[in-house]
Amino acid sequence: MSALLTEAFIGSLIFGALTAGIPLLLAGLGEQISEKAGVLNIGLEGMMLFGAYAGFAVAYSYSSFTIGFLAGGLAGLATACLMALLCVVWSMNQIVVGIALTLGAEGLTALLHHFQFSRSYPRLPKAETLPLPGLSELPVVGGALFDRNLLVYLAILLTVFMVWVFNRTQLGLNLQAAGDKPAALDAAGVSVKGTRFAAVLCTGFLGGLGGAYMSMVGGGLFLPFMTGGAGFIAIVLAMLARGHPLWVLIGAVLFGVSLSLATALQVAGVNIPTDVIQMLPFAMVILVLIIFARHSYLPPALGIPYHRGER
Q1: Structural domain boundaries enclosing 177
Q2: In 10 A of CB 112, how many CB atoms?
């Protein structure tokens, strides 16, 4: 019986860690693109929330997870377009605009949910999974790791792809230059504002996709304020990853473990107060910042609007 409980605990912990970690991974990768280009996207939480609502509402209306994911990504992209217009084109304060977008998203999505669903909280059916032949039959970890929604595999492949883009392509060099030495990028004939604008749009799409995964796959329903600070955790992950996407993946899984610990402990028959479990992710953020904050790297031009001729 003890062995069965141990296997159930491990399987539940891994399954929950990936379920909770994928939204953080997608949003963290998006934030990393934005920060590399010199834009601190504090509005990421709002983009995730818009993505969560739009993804759920569209998937529920059209009975299609694919269309729901697309709607969630586009909702995040539309929000990012507003932020890029205000911060990149009009050079407004990135922190103020980001906070305003997040607060606006919290209020607007709660209002839209109330008008569409009143006081009911409908659920989506369980999302389809794509079991990997052979691997999904492995004991203990097979189903938890290799029988997941397609977006899980795509998010991990995206991490590898971004490693290649950052280190092997001209696009990666342009993003790096936009955050480190925007004047040099401008002198090379590449638009700094265009590079930053595109980077923010990528952040918004990935953040919206992460929010859609949270509501459609993670919970199967939308709740007002359901992101619960996930966007800010993703920002911390991007800052501490020092420009390395693989560290965002590792950090997302670790935070996913802390978020899924309650379910895993319940499966194992251990009762812990809910408040303690809800505190764990934020306690981990504080601990990680204390240990690693001095080793984080931020681009010199991060958060600074670029004006041609200034150095």
Answers
A1: 2-119+148-295
A2: 16
